Amino acid sequence: MGLHLAEISLAIAPGAHALVLMDQAGWHTTGKLQVPGNITIVPLPAKCPELNPVENIWQFMRDNWLSNRVFTSYDNIVDHCCEAWNKLVDQPWRIMTIGRRKWAHGS
């Protein structure tokens, strides 16, 4: 997680500050996590997946590409997950649609 935040930090414009929304997974809330100075972590309330659009992304991938399978090995699981992720990355419009919340937009 620290490496991920460091990469995000590099993409932030000089003088800007980023807010990163995170669920309350242990690796997101540990005191050991080093958060760059140009990032503030905003924890989402516990047990509120509707506030975390990435939960819908994972559900979409499970529903469409990863469910009802028998995996033969760990590497087979990783291969299928990578294949599903790459299919989704090739469809940015779908990612935007899945992550959009109608109730979060003003009229």
Blueprint of the fold:
Blueprint: H1 2-11, E1 18-22, H2 26-29, E2 39-43, H3 53-66, H4 74-89, H5 92-99
Parallel strand pairs: 1-2
InterPro entries: RNaseH_sf, Tc1-like_DDE_dom
Protein name: Tc1-like transposase DDE domain-containing protein
Domain Tc1-like transposase DDE: 16-76
3D architecture notes:
The termini are far apart. Helices cover 49% and strands 9% of the residues. The chain has a two-stranded parallel sheet. The radius of gyration is 16 Å and the shape is globular. Strand 1, helix 2 (26-29) and strand 2 (39-43) form a beta-alpha-beta unit. The protein is mainly α and 107 residues long. The model has no long low-confidence stretch (mean pLDDT 88). It has 2 domains: 2-46, no CATH class; 51-104, no CATH class.
Radius of gyration from the alpha-carbon trace, in angstroms: 16 Å
How do the SSEs run, as a string of H and E?
A: HEHEHHH
Overall geometric form? globular
The class by helix and strand makeup works out as mainly alpha
Q: What's the mean pLDDT score?
A: 88
List how many beta strands DSSP finds: 2
The number of helical runs is 5
Q: Distance between termini?
A: 36 Å
Helix content: 40-55%
Uncertain segments are: none
How can the largest sheet be summarized? Answer: 2 strands, parallel
Strand content: 5-15%
What is the domain tally? 2
Strand order of the largest sheet: 1-2
